[in-house]
Amino acid sequence: xxxxxxxxxxxxxxxxxxxxxxxxxxxxxxxxxxxxxxxxxxxxxxxxxxxxxxxxxxxxxxxxxxxxxxxxxxxxxxxxxxxxxxxxxxxxxxxxxxxxxxxxx
Length: 105
Known about the structure:
Blueprint: E1 22-24, E2 28-33, E3 36-41, E4 44-50, H1 54-67, H2 72-79, H3 83-104
């Protein structure tokens, strides 16, 4: 638009510098706050779960795998699991979602 701000002059809508923590690929970081764990894209929290919440952790792993923001090897390394475990978790969540959707019909 003539007279409007140039692309490089615009302030970002979301801060892109992630908090310090364990990188998950080039776009995500995992950070622990006491007993809480957060997964961030830039400064935006994507997931949060308690360190003792295995279901929450597994759901975060499976969902991250489906987003494409990091590959399964990167997710596995950050969470300390095997890459095949990440794939299995993602498949379980997909199968569960399909079962729920089938019952809604």
